[in-house]
Amino acid sequence: MHTTVTAPSTPAKGMPLHYKVLIGFVLGTALGLAGHALALDAQWIHGLIDYVTKPFGQIFLNLLFMLVVPLIFSALVLGVAELGDIAALGRLGWKTLIYTAVVTAAAVGIGLLCVNLLQPGLHMDPALVQKTMSGNVLKAGEIVSKGNELRLMDLLVNIVPHNIVGAMADDKQKLGIVFFALMIGIGLVMKPTPGTHAFKGALHGLFEISMHLIGLFIRLAPYAVACFMFNLTFQLGFDVIRSLIWFVVTVLLALAIHGFVVIPLWVKLMGGMSPRVFFRETQEATLTAFATASSTATLPVTLRVAEDNLKLPRKVSRFVLTVGASANHHGTALFEGITVLFLAQVYGLHLPLTQQLMVLVLCILGGIGTAGIPSGSLPVIAMICGIIGIDPAGIGIIIGVNTFLDMCRTSLNVTGDLATAVVVAHRSGEKDLDDAAMEKLDEIVR
To answer: Which residue spans traverse the membrane (predicted)?
Structure first.
């Protein structure tokens, strides 16, 4: 049994997948806006959404999500096991944690700076605020109730799951799977017996199967993103987007500053890699994240890009990226900070510097506790609003544009994960095993 990872299947010929995703995005957006303008009340379009585009998009996400748990578990256990040294795991873990906290703090700081400079909440017409909230009152209520259930201490306690099967079924407890996989990986390192070697070989098989199947499913991404954008733009049109344009611009500006200024400097100065090379080699993962709006669903592509394109050591990429898909959310933390201050401005509340610093800390912690699924940050935003003293029901204002912004911030999450992996690999000095050692390991696994 060879330990070489089988990359997800990608078309050998024809247009690259990420270009197809862009075409799907443009086509779906254009058709949705045309439908909203010309045939908003047409029953056949509503039927098309209810019975074709919406189910197809959900099936696509379900195909990816059903393999997330086996992929996270096998990738992280193998990543820890390949380190072969508990001390090395500790060093890698601390480096990952520190680098993640620093860059996430920078992302939230940029978001707070942009929202203070542009003041997007002051540009909202009160009548439009009421109209936007009234259309999303039920959904906002559900989000607020979920946010009320979240507590920071509960997020920390749930990192250690009392029921791993229950954690696998709950998107809010994905960090529990990460912790369980870390413990199993440590156990493999500490107990090198024929039985544990056989188990490790089985995990290699599970990892390769998961990567291959998700590689097949990801070919549907161009059609799925066309469906997502068609549904979104047909229902919204330009009116709601125009009423929230200042909020959207603020989020996109902050994401762009972090993505195209901070991350390139981070990769260059700390990771020793050319930003141009980094962005060229990671564009497939970034666009896949945009299409799925889920860092966990994008994980197989992220792993393949890290190992095949960026040539990062498997032991580093599997550890950093698998943990990052559940806990390293630069874009999400940035978005949460902007949204909280935006809602404060809409309600006419002035948050002093001390409370804004509290928002920064809560967003860093909230980014770790956010489920890596579409719209997973909304309950966390509701929780932070409740802590700060802002009415969480105001989240209904931004629901209309959340889907698009979710796609954008997920792209930054995945790009940030890959940048962190580059930095950790460079600063830790970890290397993959040479060919002779790999052959020896294969003999042991057999």
So the answer is: 21-39, 59-84, 96-118, 175-192, 213-232, 244-267, 357-374, 380-405
